[in-house]
């Protein structure tokens, strides 16, 4: 066949296909319009990621009219580290089903991460036009509007988010707008009551700025001390969280499980960790976290035996030793717990945390002087840990060495000026040293930093009694 004949045949074939498509449904028309499923290079990807993406691409090819399959492929791309492919897949899903708000919503999150706030706002508006009741979409819209220098519209978005039940984070957003508009008094009015219930570091950081701009310097210093921790402000996002089911990378799943344990969701973490242990039965981090998850969920026997078996085959991994020491201490077998901590110290002699654990166990055994030496060793190897000073102070209190206790508690609050237990204990030690005015000042500092009112009131009552007795 000549080249000209081939071209004529091709044109005829395209014409026939077009006529066939014209007679089909609107859904079939979308099949012609949408591009093929996105295929990414997987040379360095984990085996489980390769298997998942290849399976989802195959499904999308088999049913090219399915918006859901394109969306699933997008979520799998996103959570496993392919944001550009995810964005294209979400765009394809939206072209196939323009009534599903999740596809433009997911696009907006990726666009914002890529620094394209203007495009992100366009995409999130499409999502909101389809489902205006989804609070997280309004939160993101307000955040991006404020970043883009449009505080008036941002405020409206944050108010909408609050009305949709998003809660405290929407009020934080409104306070950010107030500060942007140089209304620090309004920000204080929003943040002060919020800080009583929502004790997130970002709340105190913004409150410190609002106080400072209102010329309330002392209050600003207290708020800044309470907001020293770096922690990102997050809110629940069920739509985006649904994509986690496609997170098959071992590293990502292990990290997610650890986050669940930290959030107190150990039951959820256990299922993930058991699955990961099947893939890598000797993985030390997985074994340690799994034992912790079982312990936190109340199944201490299973957690204990996981570590006991692990130590038999791998005796020189110190986290196994410290983990099982915690189980023995919980059972009241302090001597065995100490044996494991001492073994861990032969492996990591300069690890401050191990010296602190040793000090706690020695104190449990009624050996305060030995415990104090262990805490002093912990302070030597890491003087930034407030707990080591706190523990040393408690030993000194037990020994009724008030001046030494005061010194340790002062060091604890110097390391962390927001540490309310440090101020409460400092107040008590100062009172026993007959330094009542200083004790009162420490107690007031604890109260300003948000110590529990009952603790403050109890300490104040004891201080008054001691002051009266001394007169």
Give the gist of this structure.
This protein has helices at 3-22, 26-33, 47-62, 67-79, 83-96, 102-113, 117-130, 135-147, 151-163, 168-180, 184-197, 201-213, 217-226, 238-241, 250-262, 266-279, 284-296, 300-313, 318-331, 334-347, 352-364, 368-381, 386-398, 402-415, 420-432, 436-448, 453-470. With 471 residues, the chain is an all-alpha fold. Helix 7 packs antiparallel against helix 8 (135-147).
Principal-axis shape: flat
In round numbers, the mean pLDDT is 90
Secondary-structure-based class equals mainly alpha
How do the helices and strands follow one another from N- to C-terminus? HHHHHHHHHHHHHHHHHHHHHHHHHHH
First-residue to last-residue Cα separation: 117 Å
Largest sheet: none
Can you tell me the residue ranges where pLDDT is under 50 for at least 5 consecutive residues?
1-32
Separate helix tally: 27
Let me know the number of strands. 0
Describe the 3D structure.
By secondary structure, this protein is mainly α. It is built from 27 helices and no strands. It is flat, with a radius of gyration of 30 Å. The chain starts with a helix and ends with a helix.
Question: What order do the helices and strands come in, and which of them pair?
Answer:
Blueprint: H1 3-22, H2 26-33, H3 47-62, H4 67-79, H5 83-96, H6 102-113, H7 117-130, H8 135-147, H9 151-163, H10 168-180, H11 184-197, H12 201-213, H13 217-226, H14 238-241, H15 250-262, H16 266-279, H17 284-296, H18 300-313, H19 318-331, H20 334-347, H21 352-364, H22 368-381, H23 386-398, H24 402-415, H25 420-432, H26 436-448, H27 453-470
Helix pairs in contact: 3-4, 4-5, 5-6, 6-7, 7-8, 8-9, 8-10, 9-10, 10-11, 10-12, 11-12, 12-13, 15-16, 15-17, 16-17, 17-18, 17-19, 18-19, 19-20, 20-21, 21-22, 21-23, 22-23, 23-24, 24-25, 25-26, 25-27, 26-27
